[in-house]
Give the backbone structure.
Amino acid sequence: MGPVSGIVLYAIIWSMTYLIAIPIKLQTQGEAGTTVPGTHHGSPQRHDLKKKAWITTGISCVLWAILAWIILGGVISLDDIDLYARFGPGPFEPNGTGE
């Protein structure tokens, strides 16, 4: 895994973790009982996005370190998931109809 691959892997992990963390402990305006005119009752009253971003960063660092160890340590290699090498190209179909 090269440096760019590591950065891309971290960005994907961070994004997925952040999307999971956003709805946790989210307080809507309907729950708080103070709906601003022109907004929906489901609009957030208190969201704490900065705190969630820092927590997401910490969790993502741990998950990235585990995945980087698995990839760089050779625990799982490309040969383990290469289905083309395992099963072959399949039968030849001259007309491409699948029959």
In short: The radius of gyration is 23 Å.
